[in-house]
Every structure is written in C-alpha cells, then in structure tokens.
C-alpha cells in the first residue's frame, strides 16, 4: 500500500511534460533550417515553395505594393474585427476567381464561402466541416505522392487517409490508369482530394479529357470531390485555364469543396489569405452550411486577419490592378518555365545519365526530379544543395546564376550512384 502511495506521490510531484520527447522536424521547414545553418556562400535552397526573382530574392508584387499604398491612404479604413467568415468583398471576388463569372452555382446562390488562413487553414476548416456530416469511417483519398500537410490536416479532423496512384516513377509521368482504378475501387462515398492545377510535388497535371474521365468515375461511385487550389495562375500563367478543372466539375453539377490560397499567386505568404468554398445543392442549403462553417471557425481562431484580404480585394476590384496582377503572374510563371528549359538543357549538355525531358513537361512551381533519397542526401551533404528527400525541387529557387551549378551537382551525384 505504501509503495503504491509513493508512486502516486512521485507522479503528482513530477514536473509537467518532463518526459516529452523531441518531435520530428517538418519535412520542408526542417530542410530550410539546415540551409540557414550552412555557411557555404554558394549554397542553394530548393526546398521551400516560395517564389524568388532571378537574383534569388523574395518578390513583392508591384500590385501588392500599390494596393497597400491605396489602403494606407484610405481614411475610412479601420483595424476592427472582421466577421467570423471574413471580409465580404474578398469572399465574393474569390468565388468569381475560382468558379468564373458565368458560374451557375454562383448565380443561383449555391456557394457559401469563408475567409480562412491561406491554403492550410482552408483545408483544415474544410475537413472539420466534412467531419460534421460524413460518417467517421469515411476515407480521404489523396494522390500518391501529395503535399504532406494534406493528409496530416485530414487526419487531425478524424479521417482515415488512403491514396490513389498518380506518379509513375519508372516513366516519370502520370499513372492515369492506376489513378482511375484506385478511385473507382475506393468505397462508395469516399472523399477524393484533388489538386486543381500545378500538382504538388510532381508538377504533372491532367488534361481536360482526363478530367472528364475522373468526373465520370467520381459521379459513378458517388464520391465527394475536394479541390486544393493553391497555385491558380502558376501552372500556365492563365487564371481561367488553371481553374478549368474546378469549373468543369461545377458545370457538371457536382457538390464539392474548394480550398483556395493567395500565398503563391499574390506572394502573400505571411498574410495567410485564403478561402474555403462549399458548393451546396440549393440556396437554402448554402445558408445553412455557412452557419456550420462559422461554428467551426469561431472556437478555432475566432475570425481571420484583415490585411491580406484587403490587399486581394483591392486588386481584384480595381480593373487596372487586376490587369497588372495577371501580367505579373505571367512573368512569374514564365520565369519558372525558362528555368525548366535551362536546367534540362544543362543536364543534356553534361550528358547526365538518364532522360530529363520530364523537367520541361511538368508545370507549376515544383519539379519531381526522380532523384533517389541517396542522391538527395548527397546533394545536401556534398554540394550544399537543399531539396526534399523525395526529389522535389522548387523551380523558383533556380536562377541564371545557379542553374549551371545545380546541374553539375545533379550530374555528379547521378554518376556517383550509377
């Protein structure tokens, strides 16, 4: 009896959290931290998905700078709380950007939206919303591979995560047949997580014909589509083209969720501006569902920040700024395309073993290089090149000054491990 009491006393007297072990580092930010500690003057960071100009510097869009100037000059502006679901004009304009001016769902008032904390926050609110109405046994199917945070966010909301085939490592392209088979064999009523464009990490997107086939199998199996739209404008430089898949689903009459982010296409990484959109069956349902989205947000973060939403709203509502923004998107996506060609050409010139055409056939911010984990580790340790261990690189981290250096490093590790 005394021994048991001593144990209780020992437990009660122990400091809180004393035995908690160090958590593993985040895959992206862990590599970024290693890069920050590296003293080599020629180090290259290709790990973080943030745009850089040709000098390797963060890029503040001119339209963002101009919008901020206009906001500062507005004497009626305040720093009051936004409503739970965010900035009204921001939500309205975001809907039009995603679904298009001719969207039937918008015209009928069947879309409810809430401003969220960029892409991750939009996904989290979206999955928490789905968890209120889908059976707990429902599985979320995401592409293999996918952006790692997607599955983590879904699991935090209580879902079981499974995958559908997407990347063909042997051919370094889309495994469309495997994708179709896995989505069709998924339990009826599963949640299918889809990348709207510029697939992360592979940079491989579906064609309109392939999207049509995916729609058919999702409809046949009564699955629920959830789009992650983090790169509108970054895939092709054309906003309407990059939103094409979402609009195809909307025109076909699907109910769905769309998580939207302005981190990449506005460069508002630190402002956390995003939206969750719910396409409902009718206007009454949209109003009801909106009330439930608010119930999720209120105890989570109460309401979203103003500044990023005000910037986006100012640009999207001002014709001259909107036109300039579209020009800047083309400049950013165009530079990435130029770097893809430059990297492929350098590897060809070096006669690096293997075929590297997939680098130019992929689109968006990332390239799935096909490099092995061993090769990636050698790039980090021997060549001071920082990338994810799965071979994903951010093309925006390359520029005319370092693309040759990177190509030589890749050539070296491929030959060393061949």
Can you put this structure into words, describing what you see?
It is built from 17 helices and 13 strands. The longest helix has 31 residues, at 319-349. Helices cover 48% and strands 14% of the residues. β3 (139-144), α7 and β4 (160-165) form a beta-alpha-beta unit. The strands form four sheets. The protein has a seven-stranded mixed beta sheet, with helices on both faces. A two-stranded parallel ribbon has the order 1-12. A two-stranded antiparallel ribbon has the order 5-6. With 418 residues, the chain is of the alpha/beta class.
Overview features:
single chain, 418 residues, alpha/beta, 7-stranded mixed beta sheet, two-stranded parallel sheet, 13 strands, 14% strand
Please give the share of residues in helix.
40-55%
Order of strands across the widest beta sheet? Answer: 2-10-9-8-7-3-4
Q: Quaternary state, please?
A: single chain
Total number of strands: 13
What separation lies between the terminal Cα atoms? 66 Å
Give the number of helices. Answer: 17
- The radius of gyration computed from the alpha-carbon positions, rounded to a whole number of angstroms, is 23 Å
Strand content: 5-15%
- In one word, what is the shape? globular
- Low-pLDDT regions: none
Q: From the helix content, strand content and strand pairing, which structural class follows?
A: alpha/beta
Q: SSE order in H/E notation?
A: HHEHHHEHEHEEEHEHEHHEEHHHHEHEEH
What does the main sheet amount to? 7 strands, mixed
> Please, what is the average pLDDT?
94
